[in-house]
Design brief:
Layout: H1 7-14, E1 15-16, H2 40-64, E2 68-75, H3 81-88, E3 97-101, H4 107-110, H5 116-119, E4 128-132, H6 141-144, H7 150-169, E5 172-180, H8 183-195, H9 205-212, H10 214-227, E6 235-239, H11 243-260
Parallel strand pairs: 2-4, 2-5, 3-4, 5-6
Antiparallel strand pairs: 1-6
Helix pairs in contact: 2-11, 3-11
């Protein structure tokens, strides 16, 4: 068995406590993750064990149709939303699994309310869906870039809370993860995207414009974490400077959510003695 931190320890490090969220400060959150994993060898072993368990649990979820799981991944550019998803679900069958990325809204999406494009791709029973970016773009990018009136943005925090509550009350379990990276590490990864040919396609000059607004984005994230960590859908802040530790911590949280669903394979009623297979 790998040397894994308990789910309780992971929650103590990452959870934005809904009962004490007003006292939360993003600057107090670490970005390294070495409090849970002293070395990357332990993190890799933990990730391997959890990725295998996630596959088994997802199989039981798909078979039983006992609810669904929506994973919201948010993080500033280069924090690792793609990487964390890839590693946590490295063994998971694509059957019953979906990843939905959200970019700039289309003309059709802008003709609806801002939650419309999200609601139509929430997971149906038996499925896991990962949102790569999410409803929170409308109180992050939209707020920092001033793409909507401040009064409208202010209304959205509670609208999002109530929308998430409706999903949870109707059988969708929700795990919200912010991948927390330092400005220094982001600089390293942006340079890597430019210098490594296989990663250059990921580089976007607009990322440098957002980097200039680093403090504004940090403040916007802190407001999101304070206003939208609820008892039905709390936030977790996962250190993301170390890719290996980031992935291992995220996998621990995902496995914990699936185990909390207490999944069991359904009994179809068939018995071996009823049938003879030639």
């Amino acid at each position: 068995m790998p040397n894994q931190p308990s789910l309780k320890d992971v929650h103590e490090l990452t959870l934005v406590d809904p009962k004490n969220k007003k006292a939360f400060a993003l600057k107090d959150c670490e970005t390294r993750g070495d409090k849970l994993f002293e070395n990357k060898k332990d993190a890799k072993a933990s990730l391997e064990a959890d990725a295998l368990a996630i596959n088994d649990l997802q199989d039981a979820l798909f078979a039983s149709k006992a609810g669904s799981l929506l994973i919201v991944l948010q993080g500033i550019d280069t924090s690792g939303k793609d990487g964390a998803t890839k590693e946590a679900f490295r063994y998971t069958s694509p059957l019953g699994m979906m990843v939905q990325a959200f970019g700039k809204p289309t003309e059709e999406e802008l003709a609806h309310d801002y939650l419309w494009r999200l609601h139509k791709v929430t997971p149906r029973r038996g499925f896991i869906t990962v949102f790569n970016r999410s409803q929170y773009e409308d109180v992050l990018v939209v707020k920092v870039r001033q793409l909507a009136p401040a009064k409208m943005v202010e209304q959205r925090y509670e609208q999002i809370n109530q929308w998430e509550k409706m999903l949870v009350e109707n059988g969708t379990r929700m795990l919200k993860i912010m991948l927390h990276i330092s400005k220094e590490e982001q600089g390293v990864r942006l340079r890597e995207r430019l210098e490594v040919p296989q990663k250059r396609w990921k580089f976007n000059p607009s990322d440098l414009e957002d980097r200039k607004l680093w403090d504004d984005y940090q403040a916007a994230y802190e407001t999101v974490l304070q206003r939208c960590s609820t008892s039905w859908a709390p936030w977790h802040v996962v250190p993301a400077d170390s890719r290996t530790r980031r992935d291992a911590i995220a996998a621990r949280l995902i496995r914990g959510e699936l185990e909390a669903m207490k999944l069991e394979y359904p009994d179809p009623g068939y018995r071996p003695e009823q049938y003879q297979i030639d």
